[in-house]
Amino acid sequence: MDKVRVATVWFSGCAGCHMSLLDIDETLIDLLDRIEFHNSPLTDLKTFPEDGVDVTLIEGAVGNEEHVEIARLARERSKIVIALGDCAVTGNIPALRNGMPPDRMIEAIYGPEQTTNGALPYDVVPHLLDRVRPLHEVIPVDYFLHGCPPPPGVIAKAILALLDGKAPELVGDDLKFG
Amino acid sequence: MEKQIHIEPVTRIEGHAKITVFLDDAGEVRDAQFHVTELRGFEKFCEGRTLWEMPGLTARICGICPVSHILASAKACDAILAVRAPESAVLLRRLMNLGQMVQSHALSFYYLSAPDFLLGWDADPAIRNVVGLVAENPELARKGIRLRAYGQEIINRLGGKRVHPA
User: Fold this and answer.
1) Whether the predicted pLDDT of A120 surpasses 90
2) Rounded Cα–Cα distance for residues A173 and A169 (Å)
3) Is the model's pLDDT at B1 over the cut of 70?
4) pLDDT score recorded for residue A125
């Protein structure tokens, strides 16, 4: 049987959801008989394969223009997209900057008074969006895993259900935020 | 002709980045730049918020080292309130920090760096990762996973969660 192809992406988040994925510990080794990882911050594959993947887990809120592009590509090349954790689901803590003009915020953090050259490298670094958005405002999302981060058991439960061709049944404590 | 080499995104690191290497006409490296592409704005949006929110809020700077941010923030809050944490609290904080050091080093070595050292710099990028490590040396990979789990479990026992303990 072909392995299920999984990609993972991180946007405006803290890597905590990816850590929670790793917190399934040795279950990861068992899963490797059935899944293979493609592009991910944990691998050296930089982008989605042309022929796509089965599942993409996206951590973090959508905070800059590059995130929007990658989210759209993820949607185009994935059968199933999962919003992994509260930042992807609601915007969460990165969305605390909403209401603050991004240019003023960047000036205050990286402007001439704060850095040695005061140059903002926009030829390389993506522009921030005016407002941090949850993933579902940018692309359609198939499943939402709540939590900051989602508990490893919930992540494992969702992955195992999908491997069996079923929709993850998330109930009770599985749905807790925070 | 001057040439640029882009590494984008930089993977198997703790954060978001790109690298640009500038080559001169002779193909020698003239300059190299490391670009941090992520900005969330903690520096600004924490301003004006209440003291009590800070440890929980600043933990979210990093899900790999949340304990560092929680403890630094807690110490700053202690100083602002002019209180001294009791000896047992200081020891518990220190223990949690040690738990983090164990898990973070295990992550850094086994999950992120070891594929370069054990599979080789020139190994196929498709397998040069922790999954490739499991295939190549399952016993070592299992030890690495267990070491990280041990550190995470210390944090969990003391703070109720492995990532972002309270």
Assistant:
1) no
2) 12
3) no
4) 86
pTM of the full predicted structure? 0.95
Q: What is the mean pLDDT of chain A?
A: 94
Question: Which whole-number Å values give the CA distances from B34 to A124, B6, B9, B139, in the listed order?
Answer: 10, 10, 11, 35
Separation CA B66–CA B71 (nearest Å): 9
Inter-CA distances, B37 with A46, A112, B119, Å: 15, 19, 29
In 3D space, the residue among A61, A18, A145 whose CA is nearest the CA of residue B45 turns out to be A61
ipTM value? 0.95
Q: Which residues of B touch A46 (CB under 8 A)?
A: 8-9, 11
Residue B11's alpha-carbon distances to A41, A45, B18, in angstroms, are 5, 8, 9
Q: Return the number of other C-beta atoms located less than 10 Å from residue B34's C-beta.
A: 10
Smallest Cα distance from A46 to chain B, Å: 6
Chain A residues closer than 8 Å to B37 by CB: 64, 66, 124-126
The two tokens of residue B60 are 């979210």
CB contact under 8 A, B9 and A41: yes
Q: What is the mean pLDDT of residues B104-128?
A: 95
Q: Looking at chain A, which residue has its C-alpha nearest residue B66?
A: A16
Helix axes B66-81, B87-106, angle to 10 degrees: 160
- Asked if residues B149 and B162 have their Cβ atoms less than 8 Å apart, the reply is no
Beta carbons of B60 and A16 less than 8 Å apart: yes
